[in-house]
């Protein structure tokens, strides 16, 4: 080995020893150790809304009416064009509403989520609820003027079917429907 190689070898050994000395730090005994921690504090940050919205009052034309009965159902209407079939009109809560002034009762149903009216007419004493064939939880009736279609504000004749979750709910609906028919018949007889 040459002298240059020996010098290089000794300097690398010295450098590694220096590195070992640098990396090892003296450790204090456990009894002398003092631990200091920052106090636990939650920041007190408040954000103010950057967008201010005004409250808008929405009118449903049901403000002057009292809910007499409400139940969840699925509504169908009979469509003859192009081929005769039942078409789903919507699912939601069907309600009997009594006008506070005239005391007339109407049936209203709004679709879930969109709240669009899918059934809206007065309950006439001339209506007859019939059992839908093949189901003990459905009723069918014919309405001469239903006002739920926005395209026809003058009303349109419809054949409706309504289906409930259980036969008990269907029975409750029929009972309340007949009570409302009787009340509307009394009002009709008083005005004649």
**How many strand units?**
7
Order of helices and strands: HEEEEEEEH
Strand order of the largest sheet: 4-3-2-1-7-6-5
Instruction: State the helicity in percent bands.
Output: 10-25%
Q: Averaged pLDDT, please?
A: 82
Report the uncertain regions.
Answer: none
Rg is 40 Å
Give the biggest beta sheet: 7 strands, antiparallel
Q: Would you tell me the structural class of the helices and strands?
A: alpha+beta
Principal-axis shape equals elongated
Number of helices: 2
| Measured distance between first and last alpha carbons | 132 Å
Strand content of the residues, in percent? 25-35%
Keywords:
single chain, 32% strand, 2 helices, 7 strands, alpha+beta, 192 residues
What does this protein look like?
With 192 residues, this protein is of the alpha+beta class. 24% of the residues lie in helices and 32% in strands. Strands 4-3-2-1-7-6-5 form a 7-stranded antiparallel beta sheet. The longest helix has 25 residues. It is elongated. The termini are far apart.
Could you give a short description of this structure?
The chain is an alpha+beta fold and about 190 residues long. Helices cover about 25% and strands about 30% of the residues. Strand 3 (about 105-110) and strand 4 (about 115-120) form a beta hairpin.
Question: Secondary structure elements and their pairing?
Answer:
Layout: H1 3-23, E1 65-79, E2 85-99, E3 105-111, E4 117-122, E5 130-131, E6 138-146, E7 156-163, H2 167-191
Antiparallel strand pairs: 1-2, 1-7, 2-3, 3-4, 5-6, 6-7
């Amino acid at each position: 080995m040459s002298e240059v190689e020996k010098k290089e070898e000794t300097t690398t050994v010295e450098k590694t020893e220096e590195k070992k000395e640098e990396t090892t730090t003296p450790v204090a005994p456990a009894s002398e150790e003092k631990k200091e921690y920052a106090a636990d504090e939650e920041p007190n940050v408040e954000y103010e809304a950057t967008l201010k919205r005004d409250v808008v009052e929405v009118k449903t034309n049901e403000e002057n009416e009292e809910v007499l009965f409400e139940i969840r159902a699925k509504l169908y209407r009979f469509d003859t064009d192009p081929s005769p079939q039942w078409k789903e009109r919507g699912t939601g809560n069907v309600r009997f509403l009594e006008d506070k002034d005239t005391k007339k009762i109407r049936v209203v149903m709004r679709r879930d989520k969109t709240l669009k009216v899918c059934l809206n007419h007065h309950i006439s004493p001339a209506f007859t609820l019939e059992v839908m064939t093949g189901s003990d939880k459905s009723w069918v009736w014919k309405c001469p003027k239903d006002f739920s279609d926005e395209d026809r504000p003058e009303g349109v004749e419809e054949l409706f079917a309504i289906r409930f979750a259980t036969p008990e709910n269907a029975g409750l609906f029929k009972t309340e429907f007949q009570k409302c028919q009787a009340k509307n018949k009394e009002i009709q007889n008083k005005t004649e």
